[in-house]
Design goal:
single chain; alpha/beta; four-stranded parallel sheet; two-stranded antiparallel sheet; 3 helices
Amino acid sequence: MQKRKLGKANLEVSAIGLGCMGMSFGYGPAKDKNEMISLIRATVERGIMFFDTAEVYGPFTNEELVGEALAPFRKFATANPSGGGQVVIATKFGFKLGPKGEQIGLDSRPEHIKEVADASLKRLRTDVIDLFYQHRVDPGVPICSINTASIPACRLKTSPVR
């Protein structure tokens, strides 16, 4: 499998990635969890190492699925500066969710980004988020004030987000 390097941090990913949204959100009912875990793991066996999810998919259930499926491949994520073990996980922030998980707006305030990162780490069963980015631009928050490097769970610089 060919590889690509992303950004200034040179995060190395497979040239082909797997967007996991449709497994539990967006395209009809959620697929069978065990079948999706098998599918995700089979893609790793075939050399795909880049997986994309978001807290809003499900909501929350897609990150949980991806976390469970990739847990065996995420050993020593913090110790590996070029990626989270054998695989790289991307997830996103930017939505404001209501008490039942419904989308009720946008929220990219720094304190909300930190809350999302902390919750995503738990759902993804990892100690670091390899790529953490804004899902939708929040017009109420200046884009220049959004800095995931300041979040301990982000891997950019020396934090849990790469």
